[in-house]
Design brief:
This protein has one helix and eight strands, in the order ββββββαββ. By secondary structure, it is mainly β. The protein has one domain. The strands form three sheets. A three-stranded antiparallel sheet has the order 2-1-8, with no helix packed on it. The structure holds zinc ion.
Length: about 120
């Protein structure tokens, strides 16, 4: 089961719902929140073809694959520069290397690191 997220910016109130994270019933798909540079919106993209499974469920992504995604104008939120480490230790929604922090993420509207993600549901 995957998670349905919403994001909200504490600075400018930018809000987006129904952003997917993870896999549902459909095989070969793994969604991750990303920034669409062209529309300047938070979207989700399928990164399944870019991640590799090492040692059972441990996922990894090569920098070459990250470059491919960025070349496409869609930057997933685990990429360096898309989030700032907070002072408060919060448990990330998704852990390293595909990190998704709850807070201090880059907001496409105001350009500040004030975007928060929260789980609002699940999808199959
Ligand atoms: Zn903002």
């Amino acid at each position: 089961m995957g998670q349905i997220l919403q994001c909200k910016c504490d600075n400018c109130n930018y809000t987006r719902k129904d952003i997917y994270l993870g896999s549902g019933m459909t095989p070969g798909i793994f969604y991750f929140p990303a920034l669409d540079l062209q529309s300047k919106k938070v979207i989700h993209i399928d990164i399944n073809d870019f991640i590799e499974v090492v040692e059972r469920r441990n996922l990894t992504i090569t920098s070459a694959n990250v470059n491919k995604l960025e070349g496409d104008g869609k930057i997933p939120y685990f990429v360096k520069g898309m989030f700032k480490k907070g002072l408060i230790k919060d448990i990330p929604i998704s852990s390293s290397p595909l990190t998704l922090q709850r807070k201090n993420n880059y907001c496409p509207k105001c350009g500040k690191y004030k975007l928060s993600f929260a789980e609002i549901g699940l999808f199959d």
